[in-house]
């Protein structure tokens, strides 16, 4: 048994919980050349959904990592692309806009002063990182160098060398904090970072020939959380970068931010900055393979760091080497990485899960009751027995047939003929070339499991399914692994060996998926109670759709809206949907199947698939509900009585009244 706790491996799944130096933590994506900031000195907008790795990506370019003590023979070329990181304190920035005792003309200066002190503080740390770095051409002495006279004036003559600058910044940050909360104190002398940073950098470039191309990338994280006027002020620096610095921003995908400057100009993509979408590759048609590769690499790296060494695993040193990306493009390498991940998180096919239904009595009883219900629906329970529809040699066909038997237009005698043909290997609509199994099997299996909420649904287990449920989000994938490891370590400690790939049982993975799903669902309230309220109600309706015995429209898990809203309602709906997209609670997609739909109906809204295990519904985008505008407003803002009317309507339309009442609700 390992002396390392599995549950600790993925406890820290946020960049903020890791060291500033992420040299040993960051896995360079295999498509890195498409998103690499390189030596381009133009400003960059980095965007991606919550948990996709924006902060980790930024920190990879920052001085702590570029000049990591873990690196040997760092080339001097890195001095031409030094990252400075600043994550503004959102509450403090909002506070700076509020005090009435701060004159409006001082509010802008106060924010500029706050930004300058934060950026200069990390600038000082960057100089220290350079001095300590293992540069291939030897160390460079910087901190004892004198700053230029013109820069000294900004610091009131209190700073002589670069080393003195950090003490000045710390004192002035304290002075600023005290003044903003105690108006009777003397106001600080305001400074602005651009001219100071340019002056200091220009001086540095002249002190040593190896620093002649010194260049700083200032990264502002969570840019969209700043006040609009504060964004305008920073946009000035995007519009007018310096010779030795540029300002870069990171935002959540779909977030809105101000493009105006403090003057009459705007910052414009291509002209003033370029956009780097960290999720674009993973969300493309070929992206599933790209994300599963990265997820597998992260999994193996974290295990390796914890002391696990597997003989089948490839060389992991290539994961942080930009010069070895081509090695990871080779199919043999990718197959080997994913094979280890799939061995650790194996999955059953839908066909295997169908067989399992016949092997487990609880599941088989659920199937038996479904067949009984179908026979009674058509009033043929005396003509046919349940066992005639239970074909152990054709489990997939039997499970799908049980659902089809519960549809209005089904003729039981004809259905039974098709089922018997499938059992005998004769041509049938259930056969390999038929559409019945292909279209309905997943929905039928979800129906079986949703009536047994305490039993883990095996459709959520498996490495590849974890990747689909996480939907290009590494934080979600790591949370699924974390919950799996936690249960496995508790229940099967003897099976953990450092030199052998351990296997997480299917039911453990499925249970972990449900636990992770519930935790992340509850966390929605961090972004707004209305979003949690919306997803709970949507989930409940999708859950009702999944409880339909006939599964005539299986795997319902997204929606569109028909009709129009009043002007006031439209403002509310647009605000909530925009917020849901920004926080990756909902995704938006075009409905390419419904060519004749109105504009409002041609947009599909898809809840994040990470919530699917909690509700017991499919994570695959298959079928949708179309709500009227009034129905959606009742879902969004209606009281319990209004929402109950919608529930009752669907229960009645789907003939669920009796079936739902005997099933355990999840809310």
How many structural domains does the protein architecture include? 4
Coarse structural class: alpha/beta
Helix content: 40-55%
The low-confidence runs, each spanning 5 or more residues with pLDDT under 50, are: 660-667
The overall pLDDT average reads 91
User: Treating each run of at least 4 consecutive H or I residues as one helix, how many helices?
Assistant: 25
Radius of gyration from the alpha-carbon trace, in angstroms: 30 Å
Tell me what the structure shows.
InterPro entries: ORC-CDC6-like (IPR056955), P-loop_NTPase (IPR027417). Pfam families: ORC-CDC6-like. By secondary structure, the chain is of the alpha/beta class. It folds into four domains: 53-252, no CATH class; 287-347 and 463-519, no CATH class; 350-458, no CATH class; 528-661, no CATH class. 47% of the residues lie in helices and 8% in strands. The protein has helices at 32-35, 54-61, 63-66, 90-96, 104-132, 149-154, 162-181, 193-207, 228-239, 287-305, 331-344, 350-359, 361-377, 395-404, 412-424, 436-450, 463-470, 474-491, 506-522, 529-546, 567-582, 612-615, 629-637, 640-653, 657-661; strands spanning 43-48, 82-86, 216-220, 245-252, 273-277, 556-562, 586-590, 603-607, 623-628. The strands form three sheets. It has a five-stranded parallel beta sheet, with helices on both faces. The protein has a two-stranded parallel ribbon with strand order 6-9. Strands 7-8 form a two-stranded antiparallel ribbon. The chain starts with 31 loop residues before the first helix and ends in a 6-residue tail after the last helix.
């Amino acid at each position: 048994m390992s002396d390392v706790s599995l549950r600790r491996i993925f406890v820290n799944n946020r960049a903020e919980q890791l060291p500033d130096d992420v040299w040993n933590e960051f896995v360079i994506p295999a498509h890195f050349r498409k998103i690499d900031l390189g030596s381009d000195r133009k400003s960059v907008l980095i965007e991606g959904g919550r948990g996709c790795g924006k902060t980790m990506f930024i920190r990879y370019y920052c001085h702590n990592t570029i000049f990591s003590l873990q690196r040997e023979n760092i080339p001097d070329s890195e001095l031409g692309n030094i990252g400075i990181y600043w994550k503004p304190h959102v509450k403090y920035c909002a506070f700076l806009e509020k005090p009435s005792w701060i004159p409006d003309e001082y509010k802008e200066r106060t924010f500029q002063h706050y930004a300058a002190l934060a950026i200069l503080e990390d600038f000082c740390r960057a100089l220290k990182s350079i001095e300590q770095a293992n540069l291939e051409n030897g160390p460079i002495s910087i901190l004892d160098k004198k700053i230029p006279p013109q820069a000294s004036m900004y610091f009131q003559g209190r700073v002589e060398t670069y080393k003195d600058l950090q003490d000045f910044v710390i004192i002035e940050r304290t002075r600023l904090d005290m003044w903003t909360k105690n108006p009777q104190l003397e106001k600080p002398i305001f400074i602005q970072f651009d001219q100071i940073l340019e002056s200091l950098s220009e001086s540095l470039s002249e002190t040593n020939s190896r620093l002649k191309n010194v260049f700083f990338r200032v990264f502002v994280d969570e840019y969209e959380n700043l006040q609009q006027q504060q964004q305008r002020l920073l946009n000035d620096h995007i519009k007018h970068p310096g010779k030795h610095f540029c300002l870069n921003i990171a935002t959540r995908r779909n977030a809105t931010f101000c493009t105006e400057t403090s003057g009459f100009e705007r910052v414009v993509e291509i002209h003033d900055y370029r956009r780097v979408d960290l999720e674009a590759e993973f969300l493309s048609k070929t992206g599933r393979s790209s994300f599963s590769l990265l997820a597998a690499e992260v999994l193996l790296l974290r295990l390796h760091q914890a002391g696990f060494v597997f003989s089948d695993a490839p060389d992991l040193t290539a994961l942080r080497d930009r010069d070895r990306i081509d090695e990871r493009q080779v199919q043999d390498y990718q197959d080997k990485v994913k094979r280890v991940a799939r061995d650790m998180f194996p999955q059953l096919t839908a066909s295997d899960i169908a067989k399992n239904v016949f092997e487990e009595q609880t599941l088989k009883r659920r199937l038996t009751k479904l067949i009984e219900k179908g026979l009674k629906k058509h009033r043929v329970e005396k003509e046919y027995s349940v066992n005639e529809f239970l074909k152990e040699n054709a489990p997939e066909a039997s499970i799908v047939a049980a659902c089809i038997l519960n549809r209005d237009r089904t003729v039981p005698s004809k259905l039974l003929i098709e089922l018997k043909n499938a059992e005998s290997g004769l041509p049938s609509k259930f056969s390999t070339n038929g559409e019945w199994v292909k279209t309905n099997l997943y929905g039928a299996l979800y129906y079986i499991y949703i009536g047994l909420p305490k039993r883990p649904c095996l459709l959520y287990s498996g490495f590849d399914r974890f990747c689909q449920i996480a939907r290009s989000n590494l934080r979600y994938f790591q949370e699924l692994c974390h919950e799996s490891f936690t249960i496995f370590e508790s229940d099967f400690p003897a099976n953990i060996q450092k030199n052998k790939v351990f296997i997480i049982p299917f039911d453990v993975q499925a249970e972990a998926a449900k636990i992770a799903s519930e935790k992340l669902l509850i966390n929605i309230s961090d972004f707004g109670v209305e979003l949690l309220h919306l997803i709970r109600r949507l989930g409940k309706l999708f859950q009702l759709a999944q409880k339909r015995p006939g599964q005539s429209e299986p795997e319902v898990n997204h929606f569109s809206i028909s009709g129009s809203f009043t002007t006031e309602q439209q403002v509310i709906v647009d605000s909530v949907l925009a917020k849901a997209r920004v926080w990756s609670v909902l995704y938006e997609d075009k409905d390419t199947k419904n060519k004749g739909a109105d504009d409002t109906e041609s947009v599909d809204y898809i809840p994040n698939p990470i919530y699917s295990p909690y509700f017991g519904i499919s994570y695959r985008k298959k079928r949708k509900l179309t709500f009227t505008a009034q129905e959606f407003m009742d879902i969004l803002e209606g009281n319990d009585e209004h929402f109950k009317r919608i529930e009752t309507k669907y229960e009645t339309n789907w003939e669920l009244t009796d079936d739902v009442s005997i099933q355990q609700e999840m809310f």
